[in-house]
Automatic annotation (TrEMBL):
Source organism per UniProt: Microvirga brassicacearum
Transmembrane segments: none
SsuA/THI5-like domain ranges (all copies): 28-236
Subcellular location: Periplasm
Signal peptide annotation: none
SUPFAM superfamilies assigned: Periplasmic binding protein-like II (SSF53850)
GO MF annotations, alphabetized: ATPase-coupled transmembrane transporter activity
Key words, A-Z: Signal, Transport
Name of the protein: Aliphatic sulfonate ABC transporter substrate-binding protein
Length: 304
């Protein structure tokens, strides 16, 4: 993604970049703890604001409205939905791939397997990777979402509902899944071999066109965080554990679930196409897009 010189007078005074720590976004946690964003934007005299918007749909809405310029951790499904519905969003890199981090879980005395979920209440966020996982797991056992009561809740609420016995199962990720496990809950299935979720870095298209140098500044901070994780893995894990309020042992275990390489690949494109196909089949999306041509900036395939 070639840089372009823009006069200082044309620079925005503030760039708003979302901060999303959960479920286990180590590069973002390191970037904030080490001040890499502020350092990268200082030469441009640009101030950074980091609103904590965790909902993918809300991040896309904020990008479309110009309220944020970079969505640092954006679910692939949210990026596709936004673009298909006319939002000015471009993907400048991958954030993570983590099928093992997504789970369908039950309580200690809940159904023994996925087949046992028929007719049961399952809590979790709709229109997300976890929604896709639930549909894929049910399909593998000859069922569909119509065979269960899927209750739309965010992760914290879904965890609480499962632990309180108000639902029979929940779709969970990150420390929410760890809490349920430590309370005697069980994983019925993970996303491994069922889905291949790709989380991306999204930007407002206008911002990418007008300020490619500032986009590069962001990517340099992201790369610096990645380098720190490689060179100081124990310290990076401790930072993540502290942020997520989990033990270092749990952080070490969760780290094995994630691939944080930012360079997009043809496999990522294929995975995003699968996510788009799921949304069409689930009635969430009517208009499709060309993932590679419409959504992903060419430079995303060249990130080092």
């Amino acid at each position: 993604m070639p840089a372009q010189i823009v006069n200082a007078a044309d620079k925005p005074e503030v760039v708003r970049i979302t901060y999303v720590a959960s479920p286990f976004n180590v590069p973002s946690i390191v970037m904030r703890a080490k001040g890499y964003l502020e350092e990268a934007f200082k030469p441009y005299n640009v101030r950074i604001e980091s609103p904590e918007i965790t909902s993918g749909a809300q991040q896309v809405q904020a990008l479309a409205a110009g309220e944020i310029q970079i969505a640092s951790v954006l679910g692939g499904t949210s990026a596709i939905l936004g673009k298909a519905n006319g939002a000015d969003v471009k993907v400048i890199g991958a954030y993570s791939r983590s099928p093992k981090a997504f789970n369908v879980m039950t309580g200690a005395n809940g159904p023994a397997d996925i087949a046992g979920l028929k007719g049961k209440a399952i809590a979790g966020p709709k229109g997300t990777t976890l929604h896709q996982l639930l549909a894929a797991a049910l399909a593998k056992h000859g069922m569909s979402l119509a065979d269960v009561e899927h209750v739309n809740m965010d992760l914290g609420a879904a965890r609480a509902a499962l632990l309180a016995g108000k639902v029979d199962a929940a779709t969970l990720a990150g420390n929410n899944a760890l809490v349920v496990e430590k309370s005697g809950g069980r994983i019925l299935v993970t996303g491994e071999n069922l889905i291949a979720p790709t989380t991306v870095i999204g930007v407002r298209g206008e911002f990418l066109r007008d300020h490619p140098d500032l986009v590069q500044a962001y990517l340099s901070a992201h790369r610096k965080a990645m380098d720190f994780m490689a060179e100081h893995p124990d310290e990076a894990l401790q930072l993540a554990a502290d942020e997520q309020k989990i033990s270092i042992e749990d952080a070490r275990r969760m780290m094995t679930f994630y691939d944080f390489s930012p360079r997009m690949s043809d496999r990522d494109v294929a995975n995003l196409n699968d996510e788009q196909a799921f949304m069409v089949s689930a009635g969430m999306l009517k208009k499709t897009i060309d993932i590679k041509a419409d959504l992903i900036a060419p430079g995303a395939f060249e990130i080092k």
